[in-house]
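Tip: read the tokens left to right.
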């Protein structure tokens, strides 16, 4: 690759992904497909996200888009996936329209990230992951979001979900996929949009129904992720739902301390209390009234005061 954090030619990304071959696909969504790219000179692997044409959110002013991408590229944190480069090229292509071929401008938009072979949190969330590891993942995600929200020019991720949190070889979580993120100007705390995009299952209600974006939008998504990690239950809204209200109500009613003890039989009293507190944090994050949701620094402080302790084979471990 040329310089890290550079603008890359489309033909180069096409080459290293073997022309975006199916066997190079890492993951996919309605918003884009992630491919495994292999650098020709050294064999280093990178992740190449090719945005779908209709979801390539390029403002009319290309300089604005480039500036936003470069704002993400300078992020340096152990819980943020490193953005290595980007591509936005417009070329004329023949497309079939109403039975006739016509020449039109097509913009290809791609983002390149560090490659993490363990996969996403979604791939590992419901497997045999012990509580200590789950607690470490929760803390790591929160630290990453704290970093984004507390930058001099804050970044609102806007698409926090298990698929967009990747894990390294040590199960350290890294927030990824900034394709829908918004960069807030100084003194700016919220904005509104008429175009609501993302995953409804993790969207805050004020965003779904009013298009309102703020740091509290991310907090809502974070709360659902914390609940899923802790309960090992999947948030699956029904087709006629536009929010996770049923899932939230179910967890709020069922996950008593007695229920937690039945689901985590190897945990000691401190560990059970930590699980209960994590669920309480998650439920607080998904309050309908966004003013009642905790700020990210409050969440991190609370988690830092907890211990992931457990009893296994009669030996108590405190961490």
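Filled-in amino acids:
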């Amino acid at each position: 690759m040329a310089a890290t954090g550079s603008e890359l030619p489309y033909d180069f990304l096409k080459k290293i992904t073997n022309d975006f071959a199916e066997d190079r696909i890492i993951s996919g969504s309605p918003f884009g497909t992630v491919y495994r790219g292999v650098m020709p000179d050294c064999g280093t692997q990178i992740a190449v996200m090719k945005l779908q044409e209709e979801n390539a959110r390029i403002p009319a002013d290309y300089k604005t888009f480039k500036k936003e991408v470069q704002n993400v590229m300078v992020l340096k944190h152990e819980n943020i996936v490193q953005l290595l480069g980007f591509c936005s090229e417009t070329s004329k292509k023949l497309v079939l329209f109403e039975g006739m071929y016509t020449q039109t401008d097509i913009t290809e938009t791609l983002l390149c990230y560090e490659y993490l072979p363990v996969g996403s949190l979604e791939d590992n969330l419901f497997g045999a992951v012990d509580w200590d590891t789950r607690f470490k993942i929760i803390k790591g995600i929160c630290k990453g979001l704290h970093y984004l929200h507390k930058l001099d020019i804050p970044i609102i991720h806007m698409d926090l979900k298990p698929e967009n949190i990747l894990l390294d070889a040590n199960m350290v979580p890294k927030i990824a996929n900034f394709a829908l993120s918004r960069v807030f100007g100084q003194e700016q705390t919220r904005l509104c949009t008429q175009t609501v995009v993302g995953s409804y299952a993790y969207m805050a209600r004020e965003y779904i129904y009013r298009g309102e974006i703020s740091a509290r939008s991310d907090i809502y998504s974070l709360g659902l992720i914390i609940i899923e990690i802790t309960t090992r239950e999947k948030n699956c809204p029904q087709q006629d739902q536009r929010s996770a209200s049923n899932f939230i109500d179910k967890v709020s009613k069922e996950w008593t301390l007695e229920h937690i003890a039945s689901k985590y039989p190897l945990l000691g009293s401190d560990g059970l209390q930590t699980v209960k507190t994590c669920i309480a944090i998650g439920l607080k994050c998904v309050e309908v009234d966004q003013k009642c949701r905790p700020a990210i620094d409050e969440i991190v402080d609370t988690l830092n005061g907890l211990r992931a302790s457990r009893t296994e084979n009669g030996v108590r471990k405190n961490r």
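DSSP finds ten helices and 14 strands in the chain. The radius of gyration is 21 Å.
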